[in-house]
Write a structure and sequence with these properties.
- It is built from four helices and nine strands.
- By secondary structure, it is of the alpha+beta class.
Length: about 180
């Protein structure tokens, strides 16, 4: 990144058996949950792409392309409404969550995201709102708290988690 070297990366995604080659103009290294990622301009597609370093098969520096300077990628703006590393390009949504009372102090002292706001407290718990992009990391985070947290809004996100909860209940019943 400092030397402004174009990279030729052989990369294998988790969900594919193929190894693909990408020509990348690197802009940022970012860590999330003890895994490192490279973000850079994909030369072929001309958009910012994320590559997990542990999935890079091989890497060659000094590929025969001129380095394209970073003229518009600002990581603070790019990730401002993102939990994790996956930027979807979609606008953020206002997610309203209901949290059971025993878990409220934890969320007050350890917010899920910097946009988190306490909307209302009741005897049973509290309503929180986050302005975040709906990405896999956000959904995984909510699933991790599904025993103490419920999605209230927006309707599409609520429906997604209702389906997941019904599946989990069926699975637990089946496991017996």
């Amino acid at each position: 990144i400092q030397n402004k070297e174009v990279l030729d990366i052989e990369y294998k995604r988790f969900d594919s058996s193929q190894i693909k080659t990408h020509i990348v103009h690197p802009y940022l290294l970012k860590e999330y949950r003890s895994r490192w990622y490279l973000l850079g301009l994909n030369h072929k597609h001309q958009f910012i792409t994320t590559y997990a370093l542990d999935r890079v098969i091989s890497l060659k520096m000094g590929y025969g392309q001129d380095y394209m300077e970073n003229t518009g990628f600002d990581p603070k703006i790019y990730f401002q409404n993102t939990i994790g590393i996956t930027y979807t390009g979609e606008p953020p949504l206002l997610a309203t969550l209901f949290v059971q009372s025993d878990f409220v102090p934890y969320l007050l002292t350890q917010p899920l995201h910097h946009t988190q706001k306490l909307l209302e407290e009741t005897d049973q718990g509290a309503y929180f709102q986050l302005e975040v992009v709906s990405n896999p990391e956000f959904k995984t985070l909510i699933l991790g708290y599904s025993d103490v947290m419920t999605v209230v809004a927006p309707p599409k996100l609520k429906h997604d988690f209702t389906d997941i909860r019904q599946f989990n209940l069926m699975f637990k019943t089946f496991q017996g």
